[in-house]
Amino acid sequence: MARTPLLAGNWKMNLNHIEATGLVEQLAWTLKDVKYEREFSEAALIVPFTNIRSVQTVIEGDRLPLRYGAQDVSAHDAGAFTGEISAGMLAKLKCSYVVVGHSERREYHDESNELINAKAKKVIEAGMTPIICVGEVLEIRKAGDQVSHVLAQTKGVLAGIPSEQVAKLVIAYEPVWAIGTGEVATPADAQEVCGAIRSYVREVFGDEAADGVRIQYGGSVTAANVVDIMAQPDVDGALVGGASLKAEEFAKIVMFYRAVR
Ligand code: PEP
């Protein structure tokens, strides 16, 4: 089954809503040919909550070939949860994607696989697609335990999600030691873990889920390394941090396929 690669830019806590509008406009200019090539890749901007409405306005107004989404979501539907944002609120803003379980949320906000699983279910219920992050820290990689560690995370974050939903979601394998460090996993490192995730999904959720689920690699992806990473059979896209804040760089990442076509 052909899976459309998803190149998603995680802006993290960068850019106010005015700066966000500027970056989307720059991207639109740089990506102006992509709307004719959408079958080769899909691009999404994962922006701070305060930018969503502005980004939506530019994308819808100019009919840009971009999707957008949020970096986190509440595990609750509504009520006395000061500071939280519900999946329903994000769906109303027509977000396509919501990242859950980013390693920075796991590290700085103590998010567990159980909480991430609850958030992913809320995203699915609201009709959006979760991008569920997994990945090992350096000590685990040094011990050679990356596959078993990531599969344990995968088991936890996917628990109780029906197979037909698993087929539609996105899993981002992001080795923590490669995020924001300039240290990129080799294409073989990325394939080892992404391949193991797909085998796990096949074993537990069946062929349709395994063939449909998109598995991204994330960690210091740039225009210079994206082509080799995307050449791996089980890598269906990239979650891109720093490089997604530069319009030209991100546009090259989105159009990685031009190097091989
Ligand atoms: C990320 O934020 O998920 C990420 C992979 O960041 P960077 O590309 O900067 O390593």
Which characteristics define this entry?
single chain; 261 residues; alpha/beta; 8-stranded parallel β-barrel; 8 strands; 15% strand; globular; binds phosphoenolpyruvate
Describe the structure in your own words.
The chain has an eight-stranded parallel beta barrel with strand order 1-2-3-4-5-6-7-8, surrounded by five helices. The relative contact order is 0.16. The longest helix is centred in the C-terminal third of the chain and has 19 residues, at 187-205. Helix 1 packs parallel to helix 2 (52-61), helix 1 crosses helix 12 (247-254) and helix 5 packs across helix 7. The chain is built from twelve helices and eight strands. With 261 residues, it is an alpha/beta fold. It has helices at residues 17-30, 52-61, 87-92, 103-108, 113-125, 138-142, 146-158, 163-166, 187-205, 207-212, 226-230, 247-254, and strands at residues 6-10, 42-47, 67-70, 97-100, 129-134, 170-173, 214-218, 237-240. It starts with 5 loop residues before the first strand and ends in a 7-residue tail after the last helix. Phosphoenolpyruvate (PEP) binds next to strand 8.
